[in-house]
Structure formats: structure tokens, C-alpha cells
Amino acid sequence: MKNAISYLKQQSFSWYLGLSLLLFAGSLLVIPSWRLYIQEKLNFLMLSDAELSANSIIFDTKPGELLFEVEDMNGKRYNHDFFEGKKVFFNVWATWCAPCLSEMNGIEKLYKKSGSTSAFIIAAKDKPEKVRAYIKRKGYTMPVYILRGFHCKYFEINSFPTTFILNTKGQIIHFSKGAENWNTSSLVRYFR
Q: Which pTM was predicted?
């Protein structure tokens, strides 16, 4: 009888402990800020490395086939002409997008290793105040903009993140939908 009571006490303790851990984990996923944090960290573990072949042209864009306008965090607007003649890393993201957030550290590292002939356009489709708060909280130094207009003959931005890389002639040499690790040796070599 004593063994049976001891066994039941052990089982109920294990059951209560398991239930408590399950409720705790579930509550973390229900709280939006924790859910986004957990998703960001899990997505980071699954990122594939972006590779670049600088000689390949994905879309041979001509004048007028790729047009965009972005606004910096101070409200100044720039269009595609401002970035002409530079190697351009163009990433469209949002603060509510966990895959977008998981690739930001890699983009920041790539940006810090890049040279002066490169331009980084980290363009958010989000409210400026949310973007400003996120960038400040993370301590990022890369140039972040709000995307105000976009037109491309070859594709639309209908999922996040979307990233493309332009050569100095304005041709698209890399195109990606989905999160990737951008801090790779081929990209570092290209943007130096």
C-alpha cells in the first residue's frame, strides 16, 4: 500500500511538472513579442547561405524596368537614380516578419564589411516608428529606409523578405524570396 501511494505521488508530481512546463511554453507563444523572438531564433537556425556568382545576370534590366523610391529615417526621399553606378543590396522586410528579422544580423555584418562603391537599401514595408524602434533596439548601423514605391518589369514584391542585388550597370545578378544568411564569402568579396 505504501508503495502504491509513493508511486502515485511521484506520478502526480511528474504530471504537474509536465503540465506547468507546457503551460509556460504555451504562454510564451501566445505573447506576441515572445512568439516573434522565438520564431526569429528558430528561423536563424534554418538559414541557408546566399551564394553569388557576380558574372551571372538574372534579369537584364533596362532603364525604366526597375523603378523605386525609398525614404530614410529622417524623411528624405531617394529614387533609383541616386543609386546608379553602385553595387546595390536591396532587401524588403517588415518588423512583424520573423524570417526577415532572422537575416538582419547577417545583413548588418555584410554591410560593415562592404566598400564605398556599394549601396545597401534595407527597405521596410512598415510604419516608420516601428522600424526606427527596432533598429535602435538592435543597434544596427546599416541604412534603413521605408519603401514608398516599387515597380519592376520582371517581378513583384509579394512576400517577405525579398532581396535582390544589382551590379553597377543596374542589372539584377541575384534574386531571392525568403530568408538567407547574407554574410558569406562570395557576397563579402563582391561588395568590397
A: 0.77
